[in-house]
Amino acid sequence: xxxxxxxxxxxxxxxxxxxxxxxxxxxxxxxxxxxxxxxxxxxxxxxxxxxxxxxxxxxxxxxxxxxxxxxxxxxxxxxxxxxxxxxxxxxxxxxxxxxxxxxxxxxxxxxxxxxxxxxxxxxxxx
Length: 126
What we know:
The protein is mainly alpha-helical. The chain has a domain at 32-87: Orthogonal Bundle (Helix Hairpins), CATH 1.10.287. The protein is built from two helices and two strands; from the N terminus they run αββα. The protein has a two-stranded antiparallel ribbon with strand order 1-2. Helix 1 packs antiparallel against helix 2 (67-125).
């Protein structure tokens, strides 16, 4: 027996939201990795003396860069990534809440359908 259209639509929406949640969690993991890499770079910069030569890769070319400028760029990048992580975490919370609501709605509709079927069977056997 196939699901009624309304129930099938809810199940499809639930599956789509699960996929969205998985993608968003993956995005957060990617951002966390980038943040950790930036923290490692920052630690390396902190260990260098002020006259150390730092190079930045722009395309296939290594370009000299001032340590203070490079340090500032890494700090800005870390701030930017942290803001992105906060935004993604908000989106994850929203998706989780919505997912829980859809699951509850789907459960309720399935129970209603089951009760209707039981009532029909009882009416048919009477």
